[in-house]
């Protein structure tokens, strides 16, 4: 039987093309919806907290810019000629004999995390703090100050840890003074801590301890500005910005990060750690790597009776490095997600004149810096003269070592 022939079907080219276009549009719609969903999740997880954090940063109490501050119409300048204490100014020494610079952290002697132990509160009280009486300004010629050149993109920031207690209102004293040089282009960070008992010239006031400059300036709402001018004159460098944080803000930062890990070099025991109600308690830290919350990190940074103020400054630097390392460990995504909570917690306790956009740009440029390579410097205690002025313990720089340290801080190499 002859097979039936099948009719041949012809499909027009235009119809085939329309079919392919419809299939392509269906795939595009599917992938587009998936992409849109991913974008929504990303914006919700990272974008919204980042925007809220930005508004919190903008809402922080901002210090006035130098141009609007009383007595701050001049740009930061370097002092030349006769030093504040009558010692001749010296050129920066390339070997920096007065610097005590630290390398990588000492390996922990105890691998496991040891608890921080606290003893019972001692029912002791301290006498009210006596103010230091300052003499009249030194009748010497006003120093000639010139701008200190620095590498492009590098900024110098004065960090102040302020002892501001409830009974003292907005006043207080600068409990920690750290000058930080941030150089994102070279991936370099330098820290220089100054003893709070340094006796120096406070511009427009006279002579006094460097930590009293904040309280004096706060009488006119310009505590950080006066410390900036005092430190800049002492080191012979220009300081671009200031940032101050009180004890409550310090605790909030550490707690918001979930604590920090610090390598405690040796056992520390202080039976007379000062509390904020002017009493005492016991602070005890075991050697090795310790995980500290905000209160413990504050104790570790402030205790001084086990050794000296110089060791205390080194501990403060260890805490700063631990904070930086913790931020690096958490990663950019997690830090952005928690940015709103962090800024909301610390904004009432931080004041700065550094623009938020610049701060974020600098921090982003330094996000990969190894904390072990951060240059940490304090003054060699042997090069400062201990003395008693008006019944107050004080340290004098009679060798010009602070000028050398200032020059090294801002040096390009």
UniProtKB/TrEMBL annotation:
One Pfam family linked to the record: LytR_cpsA_psr
Gene3D superfamilies noted in UniProt: LCP protein
UniProt keyword annotations, A-Z: Membrane, Transmembrane, Transmembrane helix
Keyword Transmembrane helix: yes
InterPro entries: LytR/CpsA/Psr_CW_biosynth (IPR050922), LytR_CpsA_psr (IPR004474)
This protein's record includes keyword Thylakoid: no
Chain ranges of the Cell envelope-related transcriptional attenuator domain: 173-328
TM spans (from-to): 28-48
Family as reported in the entry's similarity comment: Belongs to the LytR/CpsA/Psr (LCP) family.
Protein name: Cell envelope-related transcriptional attenuator domain-containing protein
Organism, as annotated: uncultured Chloroflexia bacterium
């Amino acid at each position: 039987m002859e097979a039936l022939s099948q009719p041949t079907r012809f499909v027009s080219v235009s119809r085939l093309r329309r079919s392919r276009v419809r299939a392509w549009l269906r795939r595009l719609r599917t992938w587009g919806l998936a992409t849109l969903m991913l974008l929504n999740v990303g914006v919700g997880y990272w974008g919204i907290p980042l925007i809220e954090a930005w508004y919190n940063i903008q809402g922080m109490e901002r210090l006035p810019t130098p141009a609007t501050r009383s007595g701050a119409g001049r740009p930061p300048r370097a002092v030349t000629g006769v030093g504040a204490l009558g010692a001749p100014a010296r050129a920066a020494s390339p070997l920096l004999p007065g610097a005590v610079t630290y390398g990588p952290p000492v390996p922990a002697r105890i691998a496991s995390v040891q608890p921080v132990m606290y003893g019972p509160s001692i029912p002791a009280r301290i006498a009210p703090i006596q103010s230091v009486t300052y003499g009249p300004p030194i009748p010497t010629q006003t120093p000639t100050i010139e701008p200190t050149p620095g590498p492009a993109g590098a900024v110098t920031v004065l960090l102040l840890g302020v002892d501001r207690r409830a009974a003292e209102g907005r006043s207080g004293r600068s409990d920690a003074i750290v000058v930080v040089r941030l150089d994102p282009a070279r991936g370099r960070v330098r820290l220089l801590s100054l003893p709070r008992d340094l006796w120096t010239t406070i511009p427009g006031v006279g002579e006094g301890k460097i930590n009293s400059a904040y309280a004096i300036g706060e009488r006119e709402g310009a505590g950080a500005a006066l410390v900036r001018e005092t430190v800049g004159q002492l080191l012979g460098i220009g300081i671009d910005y200031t940032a101050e944080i009180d004890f409550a803000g310090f605790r909030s930062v550490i707690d918001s990060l979930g604590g920090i890990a610090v390598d405690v070099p040796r056992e520390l025991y202080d039976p007379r750690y000062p509390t904020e109600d002017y009493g005492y308690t016991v602070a005890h830290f075991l050697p090795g790597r310790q995980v500290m919350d905000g209160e413990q990190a504050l104790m570790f940074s402030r205790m001084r009776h086990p050794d000296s103020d110089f060791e205390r400054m080194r501990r403060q630097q260890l805490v700063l490095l631990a904070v930086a390392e913790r931020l690096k460990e958490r990663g950019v995504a997690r830090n952005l997600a928690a940015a709103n909570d962090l800024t909301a917690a610390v904004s009432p306790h931080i004041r700065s004149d550094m623009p938020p956009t610049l701060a974020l740009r600098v921090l982003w440029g330094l996000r990969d810096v190894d904390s072990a390579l951060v240059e940490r410097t304090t003054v060699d205690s042997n090069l400062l003269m201990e003395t008693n002025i008006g019944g107050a313990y004080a340290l004098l720089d009679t060798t010009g070592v602070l000028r050398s340290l200032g020059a090294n801080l801002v040096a390009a190499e």
